[in-house]
Design goal:
Strand content: under 5%
Largest sheet: none
Mean pLDDT: 89
Order of helices and strands: HH
Number of strands: 0
Number of domains: 1
Oligomer: single chain
Length: 76
């Protein structure tokens, strides 16, 4: 439930930033249509960047390198 609320807050905050930065008045049909386009574009960019981050994380080597001498090195 906390994750859902956090995601909704993030999306709402993004919408507020779009409205304030573009100086949109949502009671006008033309500006509301422009807002929908900008918000959809922002969501698409957010999704694409998330895919790139997830791809980078999944391609990373998370396991340690194997040691040919065994699990512990001897200190000499």
């Amino acid at each position: 439930m906390k994750i859902t609320i956090s995601i909704l807050k993030f999306l709402f905050l993004g919408a507020l930033f779009i409205v304030s930065n573009e100086n949109l008045h949502l009671n006008e049909v033309q500006e509301r249509t422009e807002f929908y386009g900008l918000f959809y574009s922002w969501l698409e960019t957010l999704f694409n960047h998330s895919m790139q981050i997830v791809g980078y994380v999944t391609d990373s080597e998370w396991l340690p390198q194997e040691n040919p001498q065994g699990p512990f090195e001897e200190i000499t």
